[in-house]
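Lab channel / #folding
Pinned by the channel admin:
"Please post every new chain as: sequence first, then the structure tokens as a reply. Keep commentary short and put observations after the output so the thread stays searchable."

First post following the new format, from NK:
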Amino acid sequence: MSTPVFRVMPFVLVALAAGCGPGAKSDKMHKISACDYFLDVEKDIAAAEAKYGGQWIELSGQLGFIGDYSEEKKTRTLGLMCGKDNNDNVYCEVAQDERKPGQFGLAQWVKFKILVGKAKGSALELTQGEIINLGPGTVKQISLGELVEAFDEDDDLAMRRFAKKTHLVSGTIETVTPSPSGSDGGKTLTFEAPKGTTVTCKTTLSGDPAAKGLKPGDKITLAGVISGKKGAIEIGSYEIVP
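Reply from TO:
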């Protein structure tokens, strides 16, 4: 009976050394959709941390959030849509050598390689992200006149048309109002528009070099998300596109 024991032991030792023993993590990179990852974390964050923590994963999905670019860190925070009705996002900090305004659009498909950290609140930290695949662009262009006309005709229909999409809107600045002293250092802009309509653009703009020195009469193009109602249109979460 001694012979089978000596034959089995080396196999067990090799299996443990290869990382196949109890509690060991696979060297194979997880490839998972943002929605499946979100559900894993939402269901049991401790189990998700044990499964993904300290590992690089490939995470894919559609953009539901586009944050401002950090000139200091050379990163941008992007969110992948998930959860019920795609109203939640998995937020990832990804590296970019430069700002590249207008590069990203809501609902655009993207794949990240990203490092999963420890649990922080109700999420796992996702850092050191790198874009490894970017789907076709989703940014649409619309003139200011067409935008105003759409809201004048039917603002409910206009909101359904523009919701959760990124548009390029060009216009002439009418006013520039700095944020109150001591706040985020941003500015509120208005575009020249037909009488009875205001087109307001709100952002921090504090980190965007293109925003410095803006003044009435300047012609600019913004990449942003359109909302509002007849007579009061807003372009939010935007950045200036050269």
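NK: The helical segments are 2-17, 34-43, 45-52, 144-153, 155-162.
TO: also worth noting, The two ends are 80 Å apart (CA to CA).
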